[in-house]
Amino acid sequence: MGHNAAMHDTTPAQIVSTPVIRPAEPADVDVLHRFVVELAEVEKHPEPVAARPQDLADALFGPRPVAEAVVATIDGRPAGFALFYPSYSTILGRPGIHLDDLYVSPEHRGSGLGRALLAHLADLALRRGGGRLEWWVLRTNDPAIRFYNRLNARELDEIAIMRLAGEALEEARDLG
Question: The whole model's pTM is what?
Fold first, then answer.
């Protein structure tokens, strides 16, 4: 009887609406930018966010889009997002998806929204004939690593991420 009573004793704060995950639209750019800034703050990202809303607009909706995004809404309000782009594996001979950002606003963490976003991207990768969904995570982001481990994501020990940026990128151009 106590179990049934608990089920019927719901306050508005306990009622969780079903999230809607939809492709991002140009009108979402400002909220996506805000989420990027919030994500960098939460992760204590070592670099400041240099991207402007217009940079996101160009990347997602410009003449040569280089990325896609989905927005998760709850009760019509943005609650999270995922930004991703296509990848390709010469080993698999198949495309994949590289997830660049996954973010759930603080008030919706623990609600299953992050899991729903990843499930959406896994489904999208499979529907596109893909063999992989991959992403990077800062080693200092312990909550995210624990979350991904619970989903059976595997950390790759055999790959080191290398980067040329700024002055090093310019110097590399002159190597040839």
Answer: 0.85
